[in-house]
Specification:
mainly alpha, MHS_symport, cell inner membrane, cell membrane
Length: 427
């Protein structure tokens, strides 16, 4: 098949939608079922102790491991994504994540094998992070490197939609299990079902990923011999400002998301007397606002520019953080639902154009590595310890300081966005 026919194939919206969205949906589903289990299941089964708070913090520590694995995944998969192509790298990243997830679902608990259980849990959590570290960047590039110049943010929002869809699937799965199984059955085998059943989704994604065609930008990079020997070294050597300020520009996205999901789920079900089922319903409803806001922000970003939208939303997030205590300190379901919907809508507005913005910071020959590294380094700074920091702040200083934490992160992102100097790179 000729190169020209390949280009015509990959430039269709259908290929971009299916190829980029399906993978990130599966990856984020796998990632989020761990987040739910880290709050609802693992403290009891893998970190049993007399102090529930300590058990939750230990469980959340394993949750953070994936964020340290993600930059490594970015370096490894980014290297091959920039050297041999987006397609093959995306397939391997998906398998890495999927196999790790299924293994978690098959793990014996602490009661069966003692301390080996949490150690194996940490190992497979590392594998999840490694896979996602390579998945996100490739999926975004599959979209925007096939996009018309005036629709890059619109195409780039398709893989971003994988986050709310994956969250809906994971939260919905745990909600169904909670409704259909007794507490004893849920902790005995029910929690394993979403981890093991993800194998079906991975096989579907694997099949679809094998059908995608290489992006025109990468093909052109190969033909013009623009590839570099070691993309990671080139990024650190020639694109330091883009890497640093791009990372800081993405920090608030992670802080906001994991405060609105992991922290709120933990706090509401332990300190505010919400049942697991009731709060999962609130979260699932709020995710709809997350999903709707992503395409809205992408349309605005194509019209007014990525930076302007991200700067504006960062200021709104900083203001939102100041009202954290007002909404979340009471046990009012109505107030907390409004709070969750507002927070997730802001999340969608900042998340929608983020992938496109970060990808445009780097040229084709290092774009997979550069975009992935900025996104996943931001994950370490903004998400790895965010739930633990938030719980510690809330316990010691009150829920209002969790909001101040969010506002501080938003101001850091605001300043970073103003300092980034974007160069024009060929797509």
């Amino acid at each position: 098949m000729s190169n020209s026919s390949n280009l015509n194939k990959v430039n269709s919206l259908r290929h971009v939608l299916v190829g980029s969205l399906i993978g990130t949906t599966i990856e984020f589903f796998d990632f989020y079922i761990y987040a739910n289990a880290a709050v609802l299941v693992f403290p009891k089964l893998f970190f049993p102790g007399s102090d529930p708070t300590t058990s939750i913090l230990e469980s959340l520590a394993t949750f953070s491991i994936a964020f340290f694995a993600r930059p490594l995944g970015s370096a490894v998969f980014g290297h091959y994504g920039d050297k041999i192509g987006r397609k093959a790298t995306l397939v391997v990243a998906l398998l890495t994540m999927g196999i790790s997830t299924v293994c978690i679902g098959l793990l014996p608990t602490y009661a069966s094998i003692g301390v080996i259980a949490p150690l194996l849990l940490m190992l497979f959590r590392f594998g999840q992070g490694l896979g996602l570290g390579g998945e996100w960047g490739g999926a975004v590039l599959l979209a925007i490197e096939n996009a018309p110049p005036n629709k890059r943010a619109w195409y780039g929002m398709f893989p971003q939609l994988g986050a709310p869809i994956g969250l809906l699937l994971s939260g919905g799965t745990f909600l169904i299990l909670s409704d259909t199984l007794s507490e004893e059955s849920f902790f005995d085998f029910g929690w394993r079902i979403p981890f093991v059943s993800s194998a079906i989704l991975v096989l579907v994604g694997f099949y679809i990923r094998l059908k995608i065609t290489e992006t025109p930008s990468f093909v052109q990079s190969v033909e013009t011999k623009k590839q570099v020997k070691i993309p990671l070294i080139t990024v650190f050597k020639s694109y330091q400002k883009e890497l640093i300020f791009g990372t800081l520009a993405a920090v608030t996205t992670f802080v906001l998301f994991y405060l609105m999901t992991v922290f709120t789920l933990s706090w509401a079900t332990t300190e505010l007397s919400f049942s697991r089922r009731d709060f999962l319903i609130i979260q699932l409803f709020s995710v709809l606002f997350f999903m709707i806001a992503i395409p809205v922000s992408a349309l605005l970003a194509d019209r007014f520019g990525r930076r302007l939208i991200l700067v504006s939303i960062s200021l709104l997030i900083a203001i939102f953080g100041l009202f954290f205590s007002f909404f979340f300190s009471a046990e009012s379901s109505s107030l907390i639902t409004v709070f969750s919907c507002l927070g997730m809508a802001l999340m969608g507005m900042t998340y929608g154009p983020l992938g496109t913005f970060l990808s445009e910071l780097f040229p084709t020959e290092v774009r997979y590595t550069g975009a992935s590294m900025t996104f996943n380094l931001a994950g370490i700074l903004g998400a790895a310890f965010a739930p633990m920091i938030a719980i510690w702040l809330a316990k010691n200083y009150g829920i209002g300081y969790v909001g101040f934490y969010l506002s501080g992160a938003a101001l850091l992102t605001f300043i970073s966005l103003l300092l980034i100097t974007k160069k024009t790179h060929q797509f």
